[in-house]
Amino acid sequence: MPALAEYRTRALLEREGVPLVPGSVLRGLPETTPAFPVFLKAQIPGATSRKKAGLVRRIDSAPDLAANLDELLSREGCECVLMTSGVDIERELYCAVVFDGGSSSDMPGGRVLFSESGGSGIESRAGSLVEMRFPLSKPPSKEEILKVLPSGGWSDGVAGILAGMVGTFLKYRLLVLEANPVAILRDGRALVVDCRAEFESRAVRKGEEELFGTGGVSSSDSTQIERTVEAINRDDPAGTAFFRQNRAARPAGAAAVATNLCGGGGKMLWEMATGGREDIFPLNESDTSGGLSAFKSYRFLRAVLSQEEADLLFFTGSGMAFQSQLHIAAAIWKALRESPRVVPFMVRFGGTDEDKARALFERVSPTLRAPVRTYPSEVFPNAMVDDIAGFLASAGKVEATRPEDSHRSSEPAFEIEVPPGRFHIDGALCAECHDRPCLASCPTKFLAWEEGSGPRPGGTGRCIGCLMCEAVCRLDGRAGLFIELGIPEVE
Amino acid sequence: MMPGILEHLAGIGDPRVVVFGITGKQGQSTTRVMTGFGTKVLAGVTPGKGGQEVDGIPVFNSCSEAVAAFPAIDTAVFFVPAGAVLSATREAAAAGIRFMVHTADGVSTHDAALMREISITDGFRIVGPNTVGMLDTTGFLFGLIGGNASWARRNYLPGSVGIISRSGGLSQLLGAFHCRPHLPGPLPGGGYGELWGEKGPGVSAVICVGGDPVPGTTLLEAAEAFEADPRTKVIAGYGETGTMQENELAEAVANGRIRKPMVMFLGGKFTAAGVSQSHAGAMIRSEAETWDAKRKALEEAGVKVVDRPDAVFGSVASVLSSI
Prior knowledge:
The complex is a heterodimer of chains A (491) and B (323).
Chain A: E1 3-4, H1 6-15, E2 23-26, E3 38-42, E4 56-59, H2 62-73, E5 81-85, E6 89-100, E7 109-115, E8 130-134, H3 142-148, H4 155-171, E9 176-185, E10 190-192, E11 195-198, H5 209-212, H6 224-235, E12 240-245, E13 255-262, H7 263-274, E14 280-282, E15 284-289, H8 294-305, E16 312-317, H9 325-338, E17 345-348, H10 354-364, E18 372-375, H11 381-395, E19 414-418, E20 421-425, H12 427-431, H13 437-441, E21 447-450, E22 454-457, H14 468-476, E23 481-485
Parallel strand pairs in A: 13-14, 13-16, 16-17, 17-18
Antiparallel strand pairs in A: 1-11, 2-5, 3-4, 3-5, 6-7, 6-9, 7-8, 9-10, 9-11, 12-15, 19-20, 20-23, 21-22
Chain B: H1 6-10, E1 16-20, H2 25-37, E2 40-45, E3 53-54, E4 57-60, H3 63-69, E5 75-78, H4 85-94, E6 99-102, H5 109-122, E7 125-127, E8 133-136, E9 140-143, H6 149-155, E10 158-165, H7 168-177, E11 184-186, E12 192-194, E13 203-208, H8 219-228, E14 234-240, H9 245-254, E15 262-267, H10 291-301, E16 304-306, H11 311-322
Helix pairs in contact in B: 2-6, 4-5, 9-10
């Protein structure tokens, strides 16, 4: 779950009026010299055991401040440094508000947690934890929280902090919000010294993205291909395309398999079938689902295929996809034609039009640059996995060959923009086409025919990015229609 | 007519449906699948599009308007963006809807929790979010199962297996393959071969509870509906890591709340704790949520847990032959 750096958590709490130890965010030396001692805390989202890692330091002088600040700012993933004042602490307490998913018999909601032993690990609090469950629609007031806290001179202040934390937890739909320690100062005031939060990316509302930042997913942690997939998801958000590369070392002799698995269940089936095997090395995790278009499937596959170590591409749905398998087949065929890298390919279509999808592949297989094996939907991924070694042995070494040219040498007569795609229509070729299969294949009737020129947008529907027009044009027409789908370039 | 599974989930014998988001691309195409399967869709709701029709189904600006025009409506299926799901739930609840299916992926966990909270306090039932929906072979289908109506009618045939699942794909697959003639698979006695002849055991209903951390209906609640359903002789399903749904299912089997035989396949054997999964609910947050703990709990309770997904069918056939 993404974690929020302390300075960002402080910003959320501050908005709800929760008292915090005085502090400021530094990205360079402060303009005025602070009163020492101060504490410097490197702000790295998701960092744990910060003291042990030297990310939290007490500073007693100006020269120390400059040297330590520079060093902390240079740490990988460091967004900034939080400088907090030293305070005169009498005792330390623990406060938290966490999400509770409930069960069949317990309602989901939040839990207020409190312990008189703050500042230390959770183990030392196990016996002293005060818990208060609450439904999300009926958060407890400060007065209600006060009733469950042990009594002490600090109770009112702590109840106020917890009420503010509940407000923050609900407002930003957090999963965990922890203040540890909450300090009781010698003058009786209670304030938050250290804090952290965990949140869901899906819960971040429009306009709040700046408050949350990357949530521990530092761009330096992600690979170039992962960033490419992120970019594809950003500019074509319909449907899920989940992709994560394997950071582990490939065991000697293992087959490196690039995957496009469909659905969370499909991902799980693959992991169950390969998790205990030394002879198969999954290059990536993947899950495409939610009705993504063939346009997006193609771009995702190009990213998957760009993994240079791949010995095999493995595509399977978890079950019975509601999205057209024929459209997905068109996307896969296009990716296999146009990818610079080509490897043997195992595929199982499952769901709507699975027979047509398999038939398409059986028809085009002889034209592909690497062997393809298709499976009926009754064959589960685990049975396909058992086939990998034999298939790779029979496929032999695949010679590197040039991908099909995406742009023809002749200047296209006409272009149609359907972001992220661009149709290139070669009017001279289309003029010779009598069957016009592109029109018949278009499920939304987006295309109309212009005599002597070829297909044009002018039908009744809008393009859904299914790639059928291009596929049938190549199979049964004059190959005058080409759809350019750019792959985002990332640093 | 034998009542469908909804009788036991929400006390609804013959559901009448309103579709939220019916004028959108997915709402429109999926409504065709639902009606083609036999679902009685009486109205649609899209704010600002009241007065239109989609395939002859009248569209209203609000759910209360739809219910005023068709008081028999008791069920809502939603094709609305994740951010609008909570407010749509409130709107439907206020209009008196008693059963809701939410297909949206990406609903925040807080919103899902609020939806479950409201459904419990107000006494209605939600399936989802992040579900492909559910299907009953008495003739109704809510959500995205099947792709097209004729495919769904061909692939889901009346029978004695009740399907519960946290995965959309596996819900559909486990349901359809119990109906497929001459299905091949691992044989319970060893080897691989045809599990049955022309007629498979068939399904009573398929309930996908969804892949999110806070489902509107849990695996246990879905299993309880099948326990009460006289058509269902055996419950088959897919569970995975994360949440306590399989653990409480095991407890219910152990203490006799669920007495019908159950066959489960569990995903996530190699899922590392604390790592986000594409099914948001599959992330492991405690030892009890791991694959090992769940498998142990289910097996000790008497549930047959199979090692590979295609072993579900042979096990189900074997259970049925012994009843």
